[in-house]
Automatic annotation (TrEMBL), chain A:
SUPFAM superfamilies: MetI-like (SSF161098). The keyword Ligase does not apply. Belongs to the binding-protein-dependent transport system permease family. This is ABC-type dipeptide/oligopeptide/nickel transport system, permease component. It is found in: Cell membrane. It comes from the Archaea. The keyword Metal-binding does not apply. The chain crosses the membrane at residues 20-42, 97-121, 141-168, 214-239, 259-282. It comes from Metallosphaera yellowstonensis MK1. The lineage of its organism: Archaea, Thermoproteota, Thermoprotei, Sulfolobales, Sulfolobaceae. Its main location: membrane. GO terms for cellular component: plasma membrane. One of its GO terms (biological process) is transmembrane transport. It is a multi-pass membrane protein. Keywords: Cell membrane, Membrane, Transmembrane, Transmembrane helix, Transport.
TrEMBL record, chain B:
GO terms for biological process: peptide transport; transmembrane transport. Belongs to the ABC transporter superfamily. This is Oligopeptide/dipeptide ABC transporter, ATP-binding protein. It comes from Metallosphaera yellowstonensis MK1. InterPro entries: AAA+_ATPase, ABC_transp_ATP-bind, ABC_transporter-like_ATP-bd, ABC_transporter-like_CS, Oligopep_ABC_C, P-loop_NTPase. Keywords: ATP-binding, Nucleotide-binding, Transport. The keyword Protease does not apply.
């Protein structure tokens, strides 16, 4: 009996893994994503493993500041002023990944709360909250982020806040639509009959049921947030000139792009590869939560 | 235990050319349930029986009417009499004391421990992300009936009582079969030791073999704990197995109510007769006198006037609520079809206010046709007289009420005035 219970407990998980691993591109995406995560963790906890002494800043070399092509000493070449590109990219991944996670998860949490409140309470609150999100939607996101960042000043915190403000409306709409269907389900009615309070129904019944699709959305968004974050850094929102960040790293080689294209290509590639990997992985996750694709 | 008085639920239907209309899901239903009794509510789909059940435990707010909870029998009778005689003062006094509809917030939450509901579909009534134990504990925790370890222990005991192993507590609903889930739903409904349980089609989503098990389980609980039940179902067999009394609903109204055996063996309302006659009986060879109703259940947005059942009723007569449109339609059908030879091409049937104008026809031949067809086409009984210029006057109608047919039996049909 006990054994059967255990088996039943994990059968769902096993099935999910099977569905995910049958999708090869998703697995490839996950491998790349995990490589980024591992790199970020190493940089955070023991950067010496990759021969980096201080992951919080670039190592300049003003003796030879002009970009060097890839060689055995610098596998990806160098960028101005004499920064080892491979090492710089490895350092920058930590910063980009960390802040992107913060932005997406922060946006998702705010959006989920707003969306559930709007849909569950309904009426005027729904109108109010959704028109409010529409306002945020109507402004081009980069412009909005620049405006907020400009108002708050140049710092990583203001950049994160600016991007969270850009990012939550998508999640608000998404969870609202999910909540609208979940709140009509019989188990919500049963919870009402059991005397559950509104808050309990919203956050114990509805929120966990909206979670799987939201997690997929988070994984898909991670790629674009890295891009936007890098874009802001590229156009100069970065507070400290010596911060390892992929977008800023790409901007360093801008003056040499004709003679030394690798200075821009490799940081850009790091961003693109990350966006690609999380998108592939997200597609795989979507298959996992879609009941029609699992049989 | 619980009594509904003139309970109404109108759902607004917006849009369309005509603006907001109201769908009368439940209209003027009066039903009292004694302590320890099982009342079966039967009716076809869309007859409002589920809506009634949901209003009884306040999952839906009634549009009108009153629900008295935990009122002594005499008070209910008094309240009903006060309503009938228009004695607002004493009605107000009783309703202030027992009204379920006036309870709010924590008071209502406290009452929720005393009543619960088992839903039709056990596949959707359990939160897929809750473990079975949490599902059963939910009513106890959200009403504050029991907490923590006590609630846990009670939930495990309940699992055993409904015939499931305790180990199931850690499972998720999708790992259980339909019958097992319904057992969990029953355990949840009983977790706060309620006095009243509303059962909304508790077996209709289950396999036939499992249905009997669930019914026996419910019966067992009823015997042991003396729980009052309102059993909503469309299955006459379930009612005859479980219930003490039966209420028959049609199109949002109560048609008939009485003791189970009485209603099932001697149906009084024409609708109940048709309903009962549709149940197959295990007597091979015996001829079944099946009453087959014509037409469809009425549109709840604009129900028939008078008795809602009259357009389909094989026994309807002149006062049942026939309208000029209904009469005109039937006459038109006869004139254009069966009696085409008599009337020819130039006859026009026009419904007017409580009159039907038949243009281009001889009043004498109309009278003759009415005489012959009256028995088959019930709407023709509503024609009071045919005037010289072929104007058919329609009888006045009467709205049926619940008429007391005997001590414990009421029928909402003019035949039993």
């Amino acid at each position: 009996m006990e054994e059967r219970t255990e088996e039943g407990k994990y059968s769902n998980l096993i099935l999910s893994l099977k569905v995910f691993f049958s999708n090869r591109t998703a697995v490839a995406g996950m491998v790349i994503f995990l490589a980024y995560v591992v790199d970020a963790l190493i940089m955070q906890f023991d950067p010496r493993l990759l021969g980096v002494t201080n992951p919080n800043q670039f190592t300049y070399n003003f003796v030879n500041p002009v970009p060097q092509p890839p060689s055995s000493q610098y596998p990806l070449g160098t960028t101005y002023p004499g920064i080892n590109l491979l090492q710089a990219i490895l350092e920058a991944i930590r910063v980009d990944l960390g802040y992107s996670m913060l932005i997406v998860v922060g946006g998702a949490v705010i959006g989920a709360v707003v969306g559930i409140l709007a849909a569950y309470v309904g009426g005027y609150l729904d109108e109010l909250l959704m028109r409010f999100t529409d306002i945020f939607f109507s402004v081009p996101y980069l412009v909005l982020a620049i405006a907020v960042g400009f108002a708050l000043g140049r710092s990583f915190t203001s950049m994160v806040i600016a991007l969270i403000i850009v990012w939550w409306p998508i999640y608000a709409r998404y969870t609202r639509s999910l909540t609208l269907s979940i709140k009509e389900s019989v188990f919500v009615e049963a919870a009402k009959a059991a005397g559950a309070s509104m808050v309990r129904i919203m956050f114990k019944h509805i929120l966990p049921n909206t979670l799987p699709p939201v997690v997929v959305q988070i994984s898909l968004d991670l790629g674009s947030v890295v891009g936007v974050f890098a874009t802001l850094a590229f156009i100069g929102f970065i507070p400290n000139a010596n911060t390892p960040e992929l977008g800023y790293l790409a901007s360093l080689g801008l003056n040499y792009v004709q003679s030394a294209p690798w200075t821009v290509i490799f940081p850009g590639l790091a961003i693109t590869l990350f966006a690609l990997s999380v998108n592939l992985m997200g597609d795989g996750l979507r298959d996992v939560i879609d009941p029609r694709r699992r049989s | 235990m619980i009594g509904a008085f003139n309970l109404k639920k109108y759902f607004p239907v917006r849009g369309g050319v005509v603006g907001t209309q109201y769908l009368k899901a439940v209209d003027n239903v009066t039903l009292t349930v004694r302590r320890g009794e099982v009342v079966g509510v039967v009716g076809e789909s869309g007859s409002g029986k589920s809506t009634l059940g949901r209003m009884l435990i306040r999952l839906l707010e009634p549009t009108g009417g009153e629900i008295l909870f935990d009122a002594p029998e005499e008070e209910m009778v008094k309240y009903r009499e006060a309503l009938e005689s228009g004695d607002k003062e004493s009605a107000e006094m009783i309703s202030r004391k027992y009204s379920l509809l006036r309870k709010k917030g924590s008071e209502l939450r406290k009452l929720r421990t005393r009543m619960s509901m088992v839903f039709q579909d056990p596949y959707s009534s359990l939160d897929p992300r809750f473990r079975i134990l949490d599902v059963i504990m939910e009513p106890m925790i959200s009403t504050g009936y029991l907490r923590g370890e006590e609630a846990r222990k009670k939930a495990l005991d309940l699992l055993e009582e409904v015939g499931l192993p305790r180990a199931f507590g850690n499972r998720y609903p999708h790992e259980l079969s339909g019958g097992q889930r319904q057992r969990v739903a029953i355990a949840r409904a009983l977790s706060t030791d309620p006095e009243l349980v509303i059962l909304d089609e508790p077996t209709s989503a289950l396999d036939v073999s499992v249905q009997a098990q669930i019914l026996n389980l419910l019966k067992e609980f009823r015997r042991r704990k003396n729980i009052t039940m309102v059993l909503i179902t469309h299955n006459i067999a379930v009612v005859s197995y479980m219930a003490d009394r039966v209420a028959v609903m049609y199109s949002g109204r109560l048609m008939e109510i009485g003791d189970k055996d009485d209603v099932l063996t001697r149906p009084k309302h024409p609708y109940t007769m048709a309903l009962i006659s549709s149940v197959p009986r295990p007597r091979p060879g015996e001829a079944r006198k099946r009453i087959v109703l014509k037409g469809d259940p009425p549109n709840l947005l604009s129900p028939p006037r008078g008795c809602v059942f009259h357009p389909r009723c094989p026994m309807a007569f002149h006062e049942c609520g026939w309208t000029a449109e209904e009469v005109a339609e039937d006459i038109n059908y006869l004139v254009q079809g069966k009696y085409y030879n008599v009337f020819g091409d130039n006859v026009k049937v026009i419904p007017l206010q409580d009159k039907v104008k038949v243009e281009g026809a001889n009043p004498e031949s109309i009278k003759k046709v009415l005489e012959v067809e009256r028995e088959n086409i019930r709407s023709l009984t509503a024609v009071k007289e045919v005037t010289e210029d072929s104007l058919l006057i329609i009888h006045a109608f009467q709205e049926p009420k619940l008429y007391k047919e005997s001590e414990r039996r009421s029928v909402s049909c003019l035949l039993y005035r």
